[in-house]
Design goal:
Elements (H helix, E strand, L loop, with lengths): L13 H7 L5 H7 L17 H14 L4 E5 L5 E3 L2 E2 L6 H7 L10 E5 L2 E6 L8 H5 L5 H4 L5 H8 L2 E4 L3 H6 L4 E3 L5 H11 L19 H20 L6 H31 L2 H16 L2 E2 L4 E4 L20 E6 L1 E2 L8 E6 L6 H19 L8 H18 L6 H5 L15
Parallel strand pairs: 1-7, 5-6
Antiparallel strand pairs: 1-4, 2-3, 4-5, 8-11, 9-10, 10-12
Length: 419
C-alpha cells in the first residue's frame, strides 16, 4: 500500500476519517494480548535438507572467495486487498538454506566465507499489535511463524532480524546479489555499493556520492555471473535431491493413476478437463506441496495447443486426453510427466498407431541419453522417428532427410517444440 493510502490526509472528509480510524478499542487491545498459552519450549528437528545445504554453501563460498553473497527468498505478492498469492521461495534460496514449502517470505541468506546468516522476520510477541492486526505477518492471520531460536535449530544457520540486513550490507565487502529475486534487496545492495570510488571526492546534485557507471556495470556483471553459478550448481544432483525427485515421481504416478480411475466420472460430470485437473491437484496437495506447474488437461483438439491450461472442455468417449502434470514435494523438487490416455479406456487403431510412433520417438530419445553423447542428440533421435512417421502417413511434403536438415524443418509443423 502506498504511503498516501495508509491513513486520512488533511483533506479527508470527517466521515471518511472516522471509517479509517483504528478499529480496535483500547479495551480490546488490552484483552487480546492477555492470557495466551505459552509457546512450546521444544525446538524443531533439523530439516532433512539442512546438512546438504551446508555442503552446498561451502562450495559456493569457496568459489567466491572474499565476496559477500546475497540470496533473497523473494517478497510476498499481493493478490487482492489483504491477501497474497501463495509464496514460493526463489529456488537458489531454497537450495542453499534447505527451506521449502512457503518459507520464508522476505528472508535473505548472506554468505561470506565460512559465515552464513539468515536474515528473516521472526514472529512477534503476542503483546505486539502485529499479532492480531497485521494481515500479512500476524499470527492470528497467517499462523505461527518461527522464532529466531526455532529457525536456527531447523536450518543450522546463524539468524538475525531482517531489520539488521541493511547495516550489515553497508559494512560488507564485494557484494554479489541474485538481482531478480527481490527488487528491494537488490536496491539495498546497489545502495551499499554506492559509496565513493577509491580516490573520488565528487558529489552528485542530490548530495550523494558520484556514481561510477563503469563500476556499476562491472558489479552487475558480477551479479550475472553469480546467478549463473548458483543455477549451474544445480545441474548435478546430490543424493538428497535424487531421493526427492524420486519421491516426486512416485507421488505423480499416484496422481496419474487416480485420474485414470476418475475418467468415467469426468465424462459424466461434464467439464471433464477441470475434473481431471482437480483430481490430480488433490493428490499433489495431499502427497506434496502443490502441483509443480499449471496442469495441462487437454482433451480432443485441445491437445494440439502446446500449453493448454484453461482446462474447461468436456471429455468424450472415443477421444484422447493429454495430461501434463507433476507433483512438487515439500522441498520444492517436482516431477514433470506427460501421458496421453484414451478417455474410454481403449485406443482406436489410428490412435494406437500414433501413440506407438510417439512412444518409439520417446524411447529413441532416452537411448540417446548416455554419457559422452551431445545433449542435442536427444532431440535429434526423437525427431527423426517423428519425421519418419509423418513420411509414412504421407503428410510430410519433402523427404525425411530434407526435413531434418537445417534448411528444412517441415516436420516441426507437427512438433514445433523441443524434446
Amino acid at each position: 500500500m502506498s504511503e498516501e493510502h495508509k491513513g486520512p490526509s488533511v483533506e479527508t472528509a470527517p466521515d471518511e476519517a472516522e471509517n479509517r480510524r483504528d478499529p480496535f478499542s483500547e479495551a480490546f487491545k488490552k484483552f487480546i494480548v492477555s492470557d495466551w498459552a505459552p509457546y512450546s519450549e521444544e525446538l524443531p528437528a533439523e530439516l532433512p535438507a539442512a546438512p546438504w545445504a551446508a555442503t552446498r554453501r561451502a562450495a559456493l563460498a569457496a568459489a567466491h572467495e572474499g565476496a559477500t553473497l546475497v540470496i533473497p527468498a523473494g517478497p510476498l505478492k499481493q493478490r487482492s486487498n489483504d491477501t497474497d498469492y501463495r509464496f514460493r521461495p526463489h529456488t537458489a534460496f531454497a537450495y542453499y538454506t534447505g527451506l521449502g514449502e512457503d518459507r520464508e517470505p522476505d528472508a535473505v541468506l548472506v554468505v561470506a566465507g565460512t559465515d552464513a546468516t539468515l536474515y528473516f522476520r521472526p514472529r512477534a510477541p503476542r503483546t505486539d499489535r502485529e499479532f492480531y492486526a497485521d494481515a500479512r505477518y500476524g499470527e492470528m492471520w497467517v499462523g505461527t511463524r518461527d522464532s529466531a531460536e526455532e529457525m536456527a535449530a531447523a536450518t543450522g544457520l546463524a539468524v538475525a532480524h531482517i531489520d539488521e540486513l541493511e547495516p550489515s550490507l553497508a559494512a560488507a565487502a564485494d557484494l554479489r546479489v541474485i538481482r531478480e529475486a527481490d527488487p528491494a534487496v537488490t536496491a539495498l545492495v546497489d545502495k551499499a555499493r554506492g559509496g565513493e570510488p577509491d580516490g573520488a571526492q565528487g558529489r552528485n546534485p542530490d548530495g550523494g556520492p558520484d556514481k561510477d557507471p563503469a563500476r556499476d556495470g562491472a558489479a552487475q556483471d558480477e551479479d550475472t555471473a553469480f546467478a549463473r553459478f548458483v543455477s549451474e550448481a544445480r545441474f548435478v544432483k546430490d543424493e538428497f535431491e535424487v531421493a526427492e525427485l524420486e519421491r516426486a515421481c512416485a507421488a505423480t504416478a499416484v496422481g496419474f493413476t487416480a485420474v485414470a480411475r476418475a475418467l468415467p466420472e469426468a465424462v459424466s460430470e461434464g467439464r471433464g478437463e477441470r475434473w481431471v485437473e482437480g483430481v490430480f491437484g488433490l493428490h499433489a496437495r495431499h502427497l506434496g506441496n502443490a502441483v509443480g506447474y499449471d496442469t495441462i488437461a487437454a482433451s480432443g483438439d485441445h491437445a494440439n495447443t502446446l500449453h493448454w491450461i484453461r482446462n474447461d472442455g468436456d471429455l468424450r468417449d472415443g477421444d484422447l486426453i493429454l495430461l501434463d502434470a507433476g507433483v512438487e514435494v515439500n522441498t520444492l523438487y517436482t516431477a514433470d510427466v506427460t501421458r496421453t490416455l484414451p478417455v474410454g479406456g481403449t485406443f482406436s487403431p489410428a490412435q494406437r498407431r500414433v501413440y506407438e510412433a510417439v512412444l518409439a520417438a520417446q524411447e529413441a530419445g532416452m537411448a540417446a541419453c548416455r554419457a559422452g553423447l551431445p545433449f542435442a542428440g536427444v532431440h535429434q533421435a526423437a525427431i527423426t522417428v517423428v519425421a519418419e512417421f509423418l513420411a509414412e502417413l504421407g503428410i510430410l511434403p519433402v523427404p525425411v532427410e530434407e526435413s531434418l536438415s537445417p534448411e528444412g524443418g517441415q516436420h516441426r509443423r507437427w512438433m514445433v517444440h523441443g524434446t
